[in-house]
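[Q] Does anyone have a clean structure-token version of this?
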Amino acid sequence: LEPGLRTVFYNAYNELAPQYSTVFHIKSSKKHAEYELGMGNFTPWVERVNETDNVTYQKFEEGLERMYVHSEFASGFMIGKRLYEDELYNIINKMPEDLGRAGRTKVETDAATVFNNAFSVNGYDGVPLIAENHPLVSSQDVASNQINGALSDITLKQAITLMRSTTDEAGKKVVLRPDILVVPPALEWYATELLKSPHIVDSANNNINSLAGRLKLFVYDYLEDDDSWFVMD
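[A] Here you go.
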């Protein structure tokens, strides 16, 4: 783009704060791909009864590999010579504006696929991101991070409790503390009532709302399922 149009492009690209950075840790890379090797964990210690007893040694299990392959995206636009010479209505300046917004939309949409595919596309461990049967590297057990049911006072509390019981690859609790509730726009108002009402929502009882002020609400505009909701630490 010409320097002036390039400025218009980046102004439009940055006119709204990115949403994906609220729910993702952003890292940089100078390689065509990045690799991470997951590792297992040690099981809890066992009592050593006598000082002459042998020390119990554990093997450190190798976990699954995660690969991040970077893709390149580009786009542009063409204008005719006559339009360029006879530009009377500031149309050309609107083109890089919309091109910038299209670039930002691509980034946001791609990032949101992690949530939009969370129940259907298998991840590196062979099951979807949200599933009841995540395999553990150093244990025969499986782990669940899924609550079945629409967002409500009951299911949200179940999700918080389940998250606090999350274990590592050896079955040890990692003591997560959920602090963000992620919802699509369709659930914004109900989620606001859940987290800010002084009393329990949808109840005739006068019990205090123990969820009030507990979680930060993030309304993710790029979530495609009006019924999906997520609790994060």
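[Q] Thanks! Anything notable?
[A] Residues 91-116 form the longest helix (26 residues).
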